[in-house]
Amino acid sequence: MRKSIFYFTLILVSSLYLVGCSSSSGKSISSFEGTGKYTFGFLEQVNVLDGEQLIKYFASTNDIDKYLTETYSGDKSKNAIYRRVADEQAEWPNYLYTSIYNLKRNAAMMGIEWNKITYLDFVAKQPLGEGPYVGEVFFKYGDNVYSVQTELIKIDGDYYLSNLSGIQKVSR
Predict the structure, then answer these.
(1) Sign of CA pseudo-dihedral 155, 122, 39, 33
(2) CA 134 to CA 110: how far, in whole Å?
(3) Which of 123, 95, 98, 105 is nearest to 39 (CA)?
(4) The overall pTM is greater than 0.85
(5) How far is residue 89's CA from residue 22's CA, in Å, rounded to a whole number?
(6) How confident is the model over 61-81, as a mean pLDDT?
(7) 74: pLDDT confidence band, cut at 50, 70 and 90?
């Protein structure tokens, strides 16, 4: 009996924690042009903030659900894209933690010190109006130029960072 009460309490507390983590909205960016500076601000904080604080820079599961609802109207149960992405939503926080870890690891292998980088530019790779929006943030560390790929979603006129990937040294 005590064992079942313990497991019930554990499951209840875990569920409440997960719902609380995923229900808040991520930080939004008011304009597409502001993406570069916003992403750069995130990069400067990568070694300062912990993972829980860093994932707040990204779209939350509620943001993604709202985006999907607005983008894929109609019968969601018949929409294969909506179902696939909705299934992946449960893994969203773990995905973000892994992305941040990989970003940190790859930058460390390149010798980048985040507190010594300088913002250079943001370049949109996809025309506006065809979300999700893809771009590239360029920054300088030492004598080298690097880039990071960004992906954003647009909800109610605001943009939300949904992915960062592919840190690379830019050849001149």
Answers:
(1) negative
(2) 24
(3) 123
(4) no
(5) 9
(6) 66
(7) low
